[in-house]
Amino acid sequence: MSDKTAQERDFLNGTKIGGSNPFFLIAGPCVMENKDLLERVCAEMIEICAELKIPYVFKSSFDKANRSSVHSYRGPGLEEGVKNLEFIKKKFNVPVLTDIHETSHIAPLKDVLDIYQIPAFLCRQTDLIAESAKTGKWVNVKKGQFLAPQDCRHIKTKIQESGSEKYIVTERGSSFGYGNLVFDGRTVPILHGYDIPVVFDATHSAQLPGAAGNITGGQREFIPSMVRSAVALGIEGIFMEVHPDPAKALSDATTQYPLSEVKSLLKELIGLDRYVKQEILNRNN
Question: For the domain 21-280, what is the CATH code?
Fold first, then answer.
């Protein structure tokens, strides 16, 4: 168990993160396959999170620019992606997040996004991070599989020097030889030592990069165990890609979590989260 969490701060829609506050959830289908899928997943996740009192942020990608194969489905593109996010936000009144790959993506998304997400492979791209921060929106930087957690302090500095305190870092596993990732639990207390709110990416941490030939493989069966471990360390948020039928998903079919199983897993995690953060609070008092 970590000795601390990030300091309490205001988040979205009046919620707070850090300190002893409950975790929030970022979830949605990996890529925007069609509007019906986005609508179905968002509606079910809102219902689940409302019942469990979990702050919810909808996520889906308009472009998966880092696919292993040039022939893999990437998404509908920026223009259609903006329309999809506007549709979800207007219909469900929910915060939305998507990943960007170029500074040219920032302005078209400014009026709809609540959180800009910087992909793991781009976590050291200064202009992408700084220009996102200058919008005044939250910036969620996925920690690269190659990046030491101590180096995330530079990410925080780039955002602060761009005039913002709205930063989150997402842990999504570290390279462990070729074709394998490992979740190093030391990452969470190290990031908390720099007062960085931590999100745990439960689904990408189960990936096996390149292990399925021309696509990324994964081990979905380990997701519950890993996310329990992360919650036991006092994380501020959880990231999960969810799909009604993961085997038929057009991206990350081996690691997206079944929509039908999300509620039962979250119910487990709530109790653990409350216990751990109360213990941390008691020790620090």
Answer: 3.20.20.70
Burial string for 192-222 (b: 16+ CB within 10 Å, else e) reads: bebbbbbbbbbbbbbbbbeeeeebbbbbbee
Q: How far apart are CA 23 and CA 200, in angstroms?
A: 10
What is the DSSP code string of 188-216?
A: HHHHHHTT--EEEETTGGGEETTTTSSS-
What 3-state class would DSSP assign to 42?
helix
- Residue 174 CA to residue 45 CA, distance in Å, equals 28
pLDDT mean across residues, the chain: 95
CB 157 within 8 A of CB 126: no
pLDDT 10s digits, 128-150: 999 999 999 999 999 999 999 99
**What is the token pair recorded at 1?**
């168990």
Apex 216 CA angle, 155 and 260, nearest 5: 90
Q: What is the DSSP letter of 22?
A: P
Opening angle at CA 119, ends 114 and 125, nearest 5: 100
